[in-house]
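Table S2 (text version). Query chain:
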Amino acid sequence: MYQEENKLKKKSIIEAKFLRNRREAKYTLLWSEMASIEQEEVLSLIKLQPDESVILGYKEGKSYWWILTNLKLILKNGKSLDYFDLDNIEKVEVNQVFENETSKKEVSRLELKTKNEEVVELKVELGLWTTLYDLFLFIVKK
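Corresponding structure-token output:
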């Protein structure tokens, strides 16, 4: 029971953090803000656990999107569909800025590193990287 409450609380905290810090977002939305046709399309491709709920997602097209749930990050890239447990994500980085590849205004991806040293490149909407960076930092430090 305590574990379920904790997950629900985490979901509400993540939603609140996202709402507080987001800028004008076109492709990155809370799940409740996504069009039902978009939700149905995503749900037809993924498998959620009974106690799992979708919090937010980034969807710019049919071939690339990601969904954040209270348990996982689900990433669709082309024909690939990958699931990453949030407990397994250890670090979040913005190497585009630190390696002088781009200015802060043009950051379009975050790098998530897992405990088994896998690197997950996550496309993010321009202008929204700081919000998502802070959100993933919160998830990593929980």
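Notes on Table S2: The mean pLDDT is 86. The longest strand covers residues 54-59.
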